[in-house]
Amino acid sequence: MRAVVVHGPGDVRVDERARPVPGAGEVLLALEWGGICGSDIAYWKKGASGTAALAHPLVLGHEFAGRVAALGNGVTGLREGQPVTVHPAQLVGDGVLPERIAGRTNLYPRVRYFGSAAFDPHTDGGFSEYRAVPAAQVRPLPDGVGTEQGALAEPLAVALHAVGRAPELSGRTVLVNGCGPIGSLVVAAARYRGAGRVVAADLASSSLAVARAMGADETCDLSAGDALPEDVDVVFEASGAPAALGPVLRATARGGTLVQVGNLPGTAVAAALGDLVTREITWIGSYRFVEEIDEALLALRDGLDVTPLITHRFPLDQAEEALAVAADPGSGSSKVMLRLGADIPDAPDTSDVTAAAAAVGL
Q1: Closest Cα partner for 344 from 34, 5, 20, 24?
Q2: Distance, CA of 332 to chain centre
Q3: Facing residues of 132 across strands?
Q4: Does the keyword Zinc apply (predicted)?
Q5: What is the pLDDT of residues 240-251, one digit of tens each?
Q6: Is residue 82 within 8 Å of residue 44, measured between CB atoms?
Q7: What angle do CA 124, 238, 201 make, to 5 degrees?
Q8: Helix H segments across 225-362?
């Protein structure tokens, strides 16, 4: 089979690897679609994502979906040909957490994640034609949800987890600062959870177009001098830019809530934080997700449309080009998808950038 393998900084290849055989308790998936995430780009560009550095080649990808190709011994409740996606996290150890964070498995200190170099040996991801996966991590797709949508259940789960970290949103005004793929999905998740008015802010007009298509009522083009709104009940900071912290704190209402979704640097940065104290703002972190991938699948079944997020599609053998487009701020890309299977019914045949951009109003 073919797999997208990063060998070091700037070195990604489509390698031939042996097709896996499912062991006891495992499921062999014939994969169809994968979504490129920021960590995939980081491994390709820098050979590391956060503190996880490559020690040897790694198959990229933790957003993927496909169909069951074979069942290992002891697997029940699944059938060959069934469309599925995957929860990419697996706890390492006994899984016991302190009572104060009981059930919050995203905070467990040792987690294997598909497409991650955090452990050695690394945990290969799903940007390949086939992948053997523990059955416990497989999630069947609801009727009417295709595998391309199913591949985006994982980032939608991240957005739903972030929205769940905030107070009840029904009828509230929400600001989402930073409208990359996760920010735009936070827009959709806030709308799904009943927000009354959703404002999206970004420096790129292409990202704002996606945010509008995902449900934003209003947009602020920060590059054109638009100001963030004032006195917003709940703010989601999804850019991860330290320079944004002062403005989003100022935009948050007195006594309001700021949810930090974008990953901030692990090094010292300058940021204006005075409003955190004087306005008594509750500043909350949000990291990955617990089991919100199940809610994400229900939301997709119920009509939450993630397709406006998809701006580019590439076949597996053009993975490096796909990564370059996803990494280029000038490309107008949002979510870049890889077609992992060679023959997928009803799949787009090309990565037509013009058509993809037109689909989100660029």
Answers
A1: 34
A2: 18
A3: 28
A4: yes
A5: 999 999 999 999
A6: no
A7: 140
A8: 245-251, 274-278, 292-301, 319-327, 353-359
Q: How many helices (H) and strands (E) does the chain have?
A: 10, 20
- Give me 169's structure tokens: 């949103």
Cα distance between residue 323 and residue 313, in whole Å: 11
Q: What would you measure as the largest C-alpha separation in the chain, in angstroms?
A: 60
| Cβ–Cβ under 8 Å, residues 336 and 312 | yes
Residues 52 and 44: their CA atoms lie apart, in Å, by 13
Structure tokens at 112: 């294997």
Contact 63, 152 (CB under 8 A): yes
CA-wise closest residue to 48 among 117, 119, 109 = 117
Split the chain (362 residues) into runs of 10 and give each run's mean pLDDT: 98 98 98 98 96 97 98 98 98 96 97 97 98 98 98 98 97 97 98 97 97 98 97 97 97 98 91 96 98 98 98 98 97 97 56 38 34
* Token representation of residue 22: 């499912």
Q: Which residues make Cβ contacts (< 8 Å) with residue 39, sequence separation at least 6?
A: 49, 50, 62, 115, 116
3-class DSSP assignment, residue 200: strand
Rounded CA-CA distance 278/254 in Å is 8
Distance CA 84, CA 29 (A): 8
- One-letter amino acid at 255 equals G
Residue for token pair 């005075």: 274
Angle at which helices 153-164 and 292-301 pack, to 10 degrees?
Answer: 110
Distance CA 309, CA 191 (A): 15
